[in-house]
């Protein structure tokens, strides 16, 4: 779980430059980053909407638990 200050910084960066907020949360070579980059190039508002959705609604550790159970 992210701290409050980190979450606030990610949200502010996602509003100013959406791929940067996604990069801080997920990394630069992830599917989420490239989706956000393409959406931002196509239109600034879709990039912001996706970035806020990815930061606030999607848990970045959702697959880590599944892979640990398989090991």
TrEMBL record:
Protein's UniProt name: Hydrophobic protein OSR8
InterPro entries on file: PMP3 (IPR000612)
Pfam family, one: Pmp3
Homology family: Belongs to the UPF0057 (PMP3) family.
One CC-aspect GO term: membrane
Xref: PANTHER family: HYDROPHOBIC PROTEIN OSR8, HYDROPHOBIC PROTEIN RCI2 LOW TEMPERATURE AND SALT RESPONSIVE PROTEIN LTI6 -RELATED
Cleavable signal peptide: 1-23
Stretches that traverse the bilayer: 33-56
Subcellular location: Membrane
Keyword Transmembrane helix included in the entry's annotation: yes
Keywords: Membrane, Signal, Transmembrane, Transmembrane helix
Recorded superkingdom: Eukaryota
